Amino acid sequence: MEANHPTTPTSPGRPSRRRGPARRRPPRLVAGALALATAASSALVLSAPSSPAGAAEFYLSFVPRLASRTNAGAAVPGYVDEVALSGNGRFLAFVTKAALVPEDTNGKRDVYVRDRWAAVTELVSMTDAEQPLNADSVAPTLSDDGRYVSFLTDASNAIAGDDLGHVDAFVRDRYAGTTLRAAPGTGGALLNAGVVLAQVAGGGRYVVFQTSASNAVANDTNGNPDAFVRDLQANTTERVSLTAVDGQASGLTSNPTISDDGRYVAFDHNSLLAGGVIGTYNVYVRDRTAGTTTLVNVTSDETLPDAGAASPTISGNGRYVVFTSSATNLVPGDTNPSVDAFLRDLVAGTTERVSLPDGPGEMEAGGASVRLGVDDDASHILFQTIGKATAGSDAGNDPDIFLRVRSSGRTSRITTSSLVPDPAANTFFAAIDDTGSSVAFRITPKMTSDAAFDQAYVVGGVTTGVFPSLDQQTDQLYVDFLGRSATSAEKAAWSTKVTTGAADTATLAAQLAADPAYTASRAPLIRLYWAFFLRRPDPSGLTYWLGRYQAGQSLTKIAQSFASSSEFKNRYGNVSNNAYVKLVYQNVFERQPDAGGLAYWTGKLDRKEISRGAVIVQFSESSEGKRRLAGPTTITLMTLAMLRKVPDAATWNLLYPAVDAGEKQAGWIGRQLLASAAYDARFP
After folding, report:
1. Running DSSP on this structure, what letter comes out for residue 435?
2. Residue 221 CA, distance from chain mean position
3. Straight-line distance from the first to the last Cα atom of the chain, in angstroms, rounded to the nearest whole number
4. What CATH number labels 519-668?
5. With a threshold of 0.85, does the pTM exceed it?
6. Is 47 a residue whose pLDDT tops 50?
7. Which runs of E-coded beta strand occur in 58-156?
8. pLDDT digits (tens, 9 = 90+) for 444-454
């Protein structure tokens, strides 16, 4: 009877039954048994195939997690606005009037930064002396590492002598605890007009800002808003809204956006700086190193469009620009009378439409694309729509967020009714990180004042998630993998690693997954499944055989049962010893046997000196076997501990291809599982 257990078909198992009210308690590993979740659920939702140009493969698990939290882990007790993400996806900036720390005593809107790894929220809109500002602070942006935060305020006490009387731009250095003006006038004077927009570059050295002030640089006489770049190290300011021959622009500049290294700035402008559509806005890119200004909104063959363009966002590496336009001839087949989102590759000289539905067709009439985002290699495009936008996926007329994966041509609507707390809510202020693995957005109520909906959410990325503190998440991972709580020293060590950026909690999961205390009683059996059947274990079969193995039955005896099973016979037939050895080499080592090895193992089997089970154990437990089978083994080990179940088809299809190709390792697996719906579902 035992021989038939490996062939048990994959099934969700028997639902658990519970009497009385549900009690929340952490799951436990029980000695000598395997605790498996029996409820069938999809661990991860969207698989994004490999990006163009050989870029790394990224995935999003569409599980929106509340990100605007207090240091106690609760939702911000008030209205949240204007979210921004750091390039690494770790830090979220948001604006709220709620006082989340004791030093916030001004009763004004302030900028906070949430460390999603360490579960810490801090006030950043402060004076250089770390005192509250005396006016509202808004419009935060973050450097890639989250160290530098830009914001706008009309406070008069941000720095000494600041009596500007209108909005100014500042940058907070979170590490140094300092605040400095990001948009001074010439000679250190105050600007004679306010700042409308500011963005700190990913590298943290440069800030691009927009102002109509005439004294940001010398000889600014056009009386119009311009775009400028401030070098925070060299203390210099440069105007970038210039013509192709470095001339002063005669029109209006808006929406400047800067690359990580500060070299490239994209903006829109309503006069012809370097060609464009007459009488409307066009999008341009200024190369500060080359001193050139280039028109962006053109077709792939450099033809002018039949309408203008606006609202650019430049990628961190400066190669790609996304923008909006109602032009119908930027790409073939654009027949809708809507504002679409387009991507311009400045290196390849190509233009493509990216605001497309998941499948054939285009945006419906009446929809409009706004608020764009792009990751570094343009593999993921974020766009927000107003109105019914994409056929078959958006039945409402409210703002929604979509993620476009260019390599697969797939578009996913993030703000579905199952993913946000209020299906009637509006979505604003979306942001994407540099890898496309995290998306932040703010949900605001459509017809209610329920503050629970005025919050910031993040989809994907590493976070403490359902745990209010890093220590609690660390403790849970130790329970999941080792069946015990973390010691105080272990918690302190991981807290230091995470807060300093040396590691994240996914790294901890990967380390625990390799701990012999966890692997010794599980990994050999998981390798055996792959060695025999080239598949992930089925839940009931693995539960049965793990129970036998952990109760003391030898791996060789279990292997012999596998070799005698109906699944083995149905898969391979009644193979000879010679054919069996070849099969073992192929399944475990992924190669044909050498002549000497084939003769050696076949001879031992023919002479009955060793069983078939013992042969395959020799292979699967060899150093080469462990190395070759590490991918499927690690996926199964981590899923068992973190999701409390054998990987289902959705999880396997997400994780295995990237791991098998050698592109991803255990830390990446941990990040996907920590971001999954199935992980959250364990802690209702």
Report:
1. T
2. 44
3. 39
4. 1.10.3130
5. no
6. no
7. 64-66, 80-85, 91-96, 110-115, 120-123, 137-142, 148-153
8. 765 444 455 58
